């Protein structure tokens, strides 16, 4: 594949893309704003190791000094984990960060955009953004959903956290035409919990089936013909947290409600809500939510690597 010359690759990622081997994109907001230091950097390294063990190449995405990085080396990962100049940047922020030569930690939305530019089709994260509670009035709907309808990338996540309105999030994804697949379950998962009370729109039994859906989407259903451009768009693969790491929904619900109350009391809104809530839930649960978070991210990385490998080995 020809490399996009506007992006900066690590040698490992460059080589994998050029030779058509499976690559898994990873986001950086989860490192800089989703977990405390030093667990964030350690988790980032472990997640990369899981991707490699499963036969794919990890590409953690961030903006450093205005340069869009596809793959970070170890000192860069460390810097991302500690340096407060790495703001949380969504798709709207990318051009400003690049033009002004700044640092930025990419969200699911902006990581999808960069993965799309790099030709990386599979991306692993923890949880995706969605419609915030009260979003029908506040219009706080994550750009992650918009980007899922625009970039040709499959996001593997543990579903949507119940800090959000899960029902409305699934409605918006349906409206945007985004396939939502849950791996091995008919119920859509809610990050810390395998259940959410919502049926998954679609189910697949294996990573290979998920890869086949992606092929059908991108090579058939969305494909252009006779000089006509294809339709853009991604997919969401929900991967329930492993049984032994799960915090049951009934147990986490009051903690999430408490965190939401604390947030309202502090008047926190907009892009600061998700980082605040993640940190507050770690405090309220005495670190238990962090343990669950780390377990589910690694699980998603393993599945994403298998999907990427199956996708690479498949042609329609
Ligand atoms: N959900 C999580 N962990 C996270 C995020 C979401 O469980 O770290 C981060 C991701 O980077 C996601 C972003 O893209 O928060 C969504 O933020 P917002 O709701 O402001 O779009
Ligand atoms: Mn928002």
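-> sequence recovered:
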């Amino acid at each position: 594949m020809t490399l996009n010359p506007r992006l900066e690759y690590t040698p490992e990622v460059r080589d994998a893309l050029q030779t058509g081997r499976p690559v898994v994109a990873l986001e950086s907001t989860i490192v800089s704003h989703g977990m405390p230091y030093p667990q964030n950097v350690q988790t980032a390294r472990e997640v990369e190791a899981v991707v490699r063990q499963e036969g794919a190449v990890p590409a953690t995405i961030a903006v450093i000094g205005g340069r869009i990085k596809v793959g970070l080396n170890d000192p860069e990962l460390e810097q991302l984990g500690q340096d407060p100049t790495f703001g949380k940047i969504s798709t709207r922020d990318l051009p400003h960060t690049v033009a002004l030569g700044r640092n930025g930690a990419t969200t699911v939305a902006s990581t999808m955009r960069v993965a799309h530019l790099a030709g990386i089709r599979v991306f692993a994260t923890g949880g995706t953004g969605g419609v915030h509670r009260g979003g029908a009035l506040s219009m706080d709907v994550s750009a992650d959903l918009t980007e899922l309808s625009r970039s040709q990338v499959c996001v593997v996540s543990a579903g949507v956290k119940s800090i959000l309105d899960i029902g409305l999030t699934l409605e918006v994804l349906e409206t945007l035409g985004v396939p939502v697949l849950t791996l091995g379950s008919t119920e859509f998962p809610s990050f810390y919990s395998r259940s959410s009370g919502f049926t998954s729109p679609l189910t697949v039994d294996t990573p290979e089936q998920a890869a086949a859906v992606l092929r059908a989407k991108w090579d058939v259903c969305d494909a252009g013909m006779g000089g006509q451009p294809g339709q853009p768009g991604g997919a969401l693969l929900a991967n329930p947290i492993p049984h032994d790491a799960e915090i049951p929904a009934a147990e986490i619900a009051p903690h999430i409600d408490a965190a939401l109350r604390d947030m309202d009391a502090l008047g926190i809104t907009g892009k600061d809500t998700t980082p605040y809530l993640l940190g507050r839930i770690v405090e309220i649960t005495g670190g238990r939510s962090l343990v669950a978070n780390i377990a589910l991210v690694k699980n998603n990385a393993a599945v994403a690597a298998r999907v990427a490998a199956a996708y690479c080995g498949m042609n329609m």
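The pocket of manganese (II) ion (ligand 2) is lined by residues 140, 142, 270-271 (CB under 6 Å).
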